[in-house]
Design goal:
mainly alpha; Growth Hormone, Chain: A; 17 helices; 77% helix; 0% strand; globular; MFS
Length: 455
């Protein structure tokens, strides 16, 4: 008996040690790369507030909306070929490429060249986030994944929150070498992105069965845990017919729409928060500095909800609560007469929408089996997130500043749609689980014996 207990304790210690080993190897670097992605796509608003608007005449017509919108090009289905391309080389090349484009944005002479750079930036960033989510979800069991996705995401939230302060510091370089303060934001942040892209080439992990930093025993345990949890530790053979079979599942598209609804307020805040704060009467420097606290609050909220969701296996309930928080925050920012309450609304809407993003990704990842369907659903879901960015950049129009009420109304409507789609998909999952438990189902869910949907 004593020997068995000692062996059990040794095995638990082993599991704890190498799971932390995977976490520390994967999450910090991916989190930093994600934060650089978020900063590089959203620092347009910071540069605009710091003088780019005047130098490039972005206030004329819909120039700023066009430049904001053009970033969100359709997502290429690179996830389907990620294993063959080579995940590490592909992702590192993307990071280095968009870092070079970001650097070039510091030297654009007109808004047309800025639009071209934003197009290239969007093209290179398009494959990054779905690839990251795809890789992370292959390493962990279903009820470990949201905490990891949240940890990966909140690094970006925290760093992104302080990016406004960092941008303000960079604007103080204005005049050095004859370069404007807003241009230094793009130049320095582009150089930083390139450096981390090079580091990723040497340090970034790949898929579990292709990793080189774990021992064979540790790799075997990882694969066995995933196999026992959902039966897809080994990638399935990719066929065209199989891909079309995944695409006709209506829940894949419903979750994509949910993700679009969640990203709309998140993108709107990242692109327009400094402008909204300016509309409240704050100076440029104060607006940049006050942009940071809502992101710190959001990071704490996101991790708390992720931990609860993983521990109690309450994906849908967690998403619903955070969506309601987003609605309350949007109402305060859009309709409150007191400026302090409007600022509180930014805290709530940023935390709620930011928390829904990893929540929906985990909800989606938990309810699919096979690498091929995971690749398809991740690509579609994140593509819809890009549509959320397009909508945010178009409905928050220059002429509606500083309250952006048409944008607020549209975003509120999308949050209601999110709740309706969440209820519909959860009811479908519950019905199928119940049919399987009662013996009414004729075949296993997702073709995997013993599999139940996560609610």
């Amino acid at each position: 008996m004593r020997i068995c207990l000692e062996l059990l304790c040794a095995e638990l210690n082993f599991l704890f040690f190498f799971s932390r080993k995977v976490d520390w190897r994967m999450l910090p670097l991916l989190g930093v790369l994600n934060s650089l992605s978020l900063i590089d796509r959203s620092n347009l608003g910071l540069a605009r507030a710091a003088g780019m608007d005047h130098d490039l005449h972005l206030s004329k017509g819909a120039r700023y909306s066009i430049i904001s919108c053009i970033f969100f090009i359709p997502q290429l289905p690179s996830n389907l070929f990620l294993r063959k391309i080579g995940a590490v080389h592909y992702i590192s090349a993307l990071v280095i490429s968009w870092g070079a484009v970001q650097l070039a944005m510091g030297f654009v002479p007109s808004w047309g060249y800025l639009a071209l750079c934003r197009t290239l930036l969007g093209a290179f960033e398009a494959g990054f986030f779905p690839a990251m989510v795809f890789i992370i979800t292959t390493w962990y069991t279903r009820h470990e994944v949201q905490t990891r996705l949240a940890a990966f995401y909140i690094v970006g939230i925290c760093v992104g929150g302080f990016s406004a302060i960092f941008a303000y510091i960079l604007t103080l370089l204005g005049g050095r070498l004859g370069i404007s303060g807003w241009a230094w934001i793009f130049i320095i942040e582009g150089v930083i992105t390139i450096v981390f892209g090079i580091a990723a080439w040497f340090y970034l992990p790949s898929f579990p069965d292709q990793n080189t930093f774990l021992t064979p025993r540790e790799t075997a345990v990882i694969l066995e845990r995933v196999e026992q949890d959902r039966g897809d530790s080994v990638p399935d053979i990719l066929r065209i017919g199989k891909i079309f079979g995944h695409l006709v599942d209506w829940k894949v598209w419903a979750i994509g729409l949910m993700y679009m609804c969640a990203t709309m307020p998140a993108y709107a805040i990242s692109m327009f928060v400094t402008i909204i704060l300016r509309g409240m009467g704050w100076s440029v420097s104060a607006s940049l500095l006050l942009s940071a606290p809502p992101y710190i609050f959001a990071a704490l909220s996101i991790m708390a909800f992720a931990w609860i969701s993983d521990k109690y296996r309450l994906r849908a309930a967690s998403i619903a609560i955070q969506t309601v928080i987003t609605i309350v925050g949007l109402c305060l920012t859009g309709f409150a007469s007191n400026q302090n309450w409007r600022y509180v609304g930014i805290f709530l809407s940023n935390a709620g929408s930011g928390g829904c993003i990893p929540g929906i990704l985990a909800y989606s990842a938990n309810n699919v089996v096979s690498h091929s369907k995971r690749a398809v659903t991740t690509a579609i879901t994140v593509s819809f997130g890009g549509m959320g960015g397009i909508m945010a950049s178009l409905i928050f129009r220059q002429q509606d500043s500083p309250r952006y009420l048409p944008g607020i109304y549209a975003t509120l409507g999308c949050q209601v749609l999110l709740l309706l789609l969440l209820g519909l998909t959860t009811l479908s999952y519950w019905t199928k689980n119940h049919a399987l438990r009662s013996g009414a189902a004729k075949e296993p869910l997702e073709g995997q014996a013993g599999f139940f949907y996560t609610l």
